[in-house]
Every structure is written in C-alpha cells, then in structure tokens.
Write a structure and sequence with these properties.
8 helices, mainly alpha, 232 residues, 79% helix
Length: 232
Amino acid sequence: LGAALLAAFAGTLSGALQGYGQEVFNAAVLIVAVVMLGWHNLWMASHGRELAREMRAVGAAVAAGEKSLLAMAVVVAVAILREGSEVVLFLYGVVASTQTGPGPLLLGGLLGVAAGALVSWLIYRGLVAIPLKRLFSVTSALIALVAAGMAGQAAAILAGADLIPAWGYQLWDTSWLLPDATLTGKALHALVGYSDRPMGVQLAAYVATLLVLLVAGRLVHQAPSRQAAAQH
C-alpha cells in the first residue's frame, strides 16, 4: 500500500518545492525513522528488564507444561506487530540513504531472516546461550549507529538541495581507501553511516544524534535505580 501511494504521487513529489520534493520526502522519512529508532532504544532501556523477566517467565511456563506453545507464539506475534512500522520505515530509510535497488534489499532481507532463524534454532536447542542483557546492549548500540547514520544522510540530502547550510561540502576524502561504491563501503554506509566525503552538517547531525541517543538511553536505564535509591 505504501509503495503504491509513493508511486502514485512520485511525480507530484518530484515537482514540489522547486523540484526538490523527492529529496525533502526522503529526508523526512529518514528523520521519522531516526525518531522511531531512537524511541525504540529509549523504550528498551526503560522496559528491557521487565521484558526479559516476562520472556523468562513465559519460557519457563512453556517448558514446565503450564502453558502451550501458543502463548510463546502470541508473545512473538505481538513483538513483531509492534516492530512492523519501524521495519517499514527502516527499509525505506535504507533505500533512500543508499539508493539500493530491490534485488540487494530482498537478498539482504532473506539473509537476515535466515540468520535470525538459525540463531533462534541454536538458542532453542540449547547450543548457544546469549545473555539478554548483553543482547539488548549490543542491539541498542547498533540501532544508535544506524539512526545516527540516517540522521547524517538526511542532513546531507537537505544540504544537497540547498535547504540547510552544508558547513563544508567535503571535510575529508577517504575514497582512495574505502569508496562508497564498494560492497564494504555500502555495507558500512547502511550500518554505521559511513561516507567517504562527508559534509560538515552531515557529521554534526551524526555526532549529535549518536550522543543524544547514548546519553538519553543511559539516563533512562539508570532511572529505576535512582528511584529505588531515593525511596530507601
């Protein structure tokens, strides 16, 4: 539905705002994706422990025969439903920031599903044990890097359209070492926002977003401990 609407209004978007409608739309989607990824990180920092306890409780109940596997399926389905909108925005953000075609995007999605299924099977069989605390910490850090990269790309798009100041169009040039066009460069660009010729405003948006997410996440994570200490 979203793809159909985007295709229907592609001409209108391209012609809007003096021909920069598509760029503004892409930047807006990236910014919304950054906000939602940031909200996800803060939500996990605030409710991660509670979520881990619920997951352990449901898993123990299923193992003991007190609940059916349907209970576990419901928990997983609710989690997937909540993440659905974020996944859609994230994927469009990747397309907007990397100009990736449908082929590589589909291949990456299939590889991600296969890797997730493999890890889930290994955990289910007891062959791999991943501490939930470490898992949440690592995923939160990766999400913060992805969000920072998207924020930087949104700033670069707006600066390229002369809608915001660039603060320097090329701070450095590492294309001789790792060009954006290479497979490694594209992967790093999608994962951590790498750019071989970054603008000043792009770097500023990247650093600011990363600092805000890390500091806010740490404050939210420590809030229950401070509240418990204040009560005592």
